[in-house]
Structures are given as structure tokens and as C-alpha cells.
Amino acid sequence: MSPSVEQVHGAVQTLTQSSDTLFLLLGAIMVFLMHAGFAFLEVGTVRQKNQVNALVKILADFGVSAIAYFFIGYWVAYGGTFFADAETLSQGNGYELVKFFFLLTFAAAIPAIVSGGIAERARFYPILLATFFTVGLVYPLFEGMIWNGNFGFQTWLESTFGAGFHDFAGSVVVHGVGGWIALVAVVFLGMRKGRIRAGKHTNFAPSNIPFLALGAWILSVGWFGFNVMSAQTLEGISGLVAMNSLMAMVGGILASLFAGKNDPGFIHNGPLAGLVAVCAGSDLMHPIGALITGSVAGVLFVWVFTYLQNKTKIDDVLGVWPLHGLCGAWGGVAAGIFGQSALGGLGGVSFASQVVGTVAGIAVAIVGAAIVYGILDKVTGLRLSEEDEFNGADLAIHKISSTNED
Asked: Which residue segment(s) compose the domain that 202 sits in?
């Protein structure tokens, strides 16, 4: 007997659900792997006496982020909780559970970004507390405003400017917010000891260029899961997102190569700057627009990071504010420029909404971080003692060095 229409429809629906679940699971795994990239990028940049701490921070931050987002953050952003029986949670092949995993890997990028800025002088447990509150409250507040329509912000933008704020994969929601939170944390912590000598700025050389490069490569590869799989379903997948991610990455590489005068640290951060910037409009832009977006980001990172390190007291070790904060903000605005149909994009985006949405993300990040880090600075203190900083976070916090050499 031939199957009924209902049986065929049910089989197709089950196949679609299971395929979407697998698709998003692979995306979550790719973005989870990016946290190894964050770790090795930091390990290669910091001095050898802080390498163990860099590795431990990223992993510990992920664990704290998972708890904060599971019990608080996901509810703040989407109104969903996991206080139901396993049978209910696993409906639809467990797609909603995998969606949580995918979104968690985005949320956990916030402390991974901050970690690179505050490296080499931050206390361990106070920073984990900051991670809990930024991932549980600050980040999901803006995430829910943009990706879930909370507080009517998107509705207001659409009625006022004709379109809501478009951020396909998180130039502002993830990277911009993370970068501006990091700036606040960096300001609270102050400069590392030894940066100013005889009245002049001194820059500490990266400890391990191969590790730095490995981190950049892992991040660059994982970013295609970050961007492409933000579609969240097989039906929504777009080769345009992949192509635009590629072109923005290439733009960042070449721009940082020339602007950074062959410096390997700049060259390996260049593709990351381009990828940060293209997240927002990767599903809208023409590939040439993505190339320009990535190129501008590469130059922006090199110039601003160089200025910070040589002219200011903002001691951002990995340059996470220019890389994620500024390039993320540029990406939000760039989506409103190169997403326009007049410039080869798909249209349906408002430049004014992109500017207002970007500024809103920056405001939430700064105010939220100022509250979290300000309170923790008063209550527990954020910075290692001068002696512990001199000895290095590895020995001061973890009682072990990255090598067994005396």
C-alpha cells in the first residue's frame, strides 16, 4: 500500500527538522572551536609568564558563560527557559536546544574578547564574576532588542526610518558590544607596569608568533560557521554570505599588510578585522562592497591600535577595542551603506537605522560594563598586586608556568 499524503508530509517534515538541527549543531561546534582561536591568539601575544592564564581564562569564561546564559541570559533575550521535562525540550529533534548551544557560543565570545584586552594584570575570580553578569544580563539585553524585538526598539526604527537595525551575524550585537565592554574593563584596570619608561611608551613584543598565527587561523576558519550558519536553517543558507565573508577577510589581510608594514601581528589580526566588520551585512552586500568593508576595517585596526599603544594610557593588550569595538561599529554602519541596492546590495536596509542601532549597542555596552566593573572594582578589586603582576599571572594565580624550565 502506498504511503498517504500525511505520511509523506510527516517524513519530509522530520527530515527537514533533523537536517536543520544537524546544520545548526555543526555551526555551534565551529563557533565553539573559535574559542580555541581566541585562546591561542592571546597566548601568542602575551608575555610567556602569562600564557597559562590566557588558556585557563578562556576555558573558565566559557563554563561561567554557559551557566549564566542557560539560567539567565537566554531568558532575558528570548523569554525562554529550560524548566521543562526532557521530552518537551527534545521536540522537533531538539532543534531549540541546539539553537541555544549556537547562541551560547556567540554570548561566550563576549568574555573571550574582553580577556585579550585585560590580559597580564587582571585578577582571576573577579573577572569570572564580571563574565557572569555581562553574559547573563548586559549582552542579552541588547541581543534581545535586536534579534528578538524586545522593548519595541526594532519596531520604532522601522516606523521611523523604514527598516529595522540589520545585524545578520553580530558585527554590533556580538563584536561591537564585546569590544566596548572590553574598553571599559581596560580603563578600570589601567596600564601594565613597565609600559612607560623614561616618559616614553614601551610595547611588549608578542611571545610566540606561531601561536598567535594559529589562533588567527582557527578564528578565520570558524568564522564561516559564525556567519554562514547564522541562517540557522538549511533553507536560509546563502552562498552570498560565504563569498562576502571571504572577500572581507581578504580585504582585511591586504589592508593590514600594507598599513601594518609587514608586521606579523597586524597581518594576522587583519582578516579578523575584516570578518568582524562584514558580519552585519554579509547577507546583503555585493562582494565588492564586502571587500571595501574589510579593507577599511583592516586599516582602522592598524591605525587605531598603533595610536593607542604609542600615544595613550589605554593599555589594550590584543587591541580588542579597535578590532571588535570599532570594526564592529564600522560593520553596523557599513551594512547601511553597501547593503543599499544603489551600491549593488540587496536593499531593505536603512542607513539611519544602522547608525542609531550601532550607537544603541555601544551605549548598552558602556553603561552595562561601567556598572559591572565599577561595582566589582570597589567590592573585590580587579587588578593583581604589583608583585603578582611582576611574577606573572601563571605563577601568581595558577602556581605553574607554561614550561618546566627554571
From this structure: 8-398
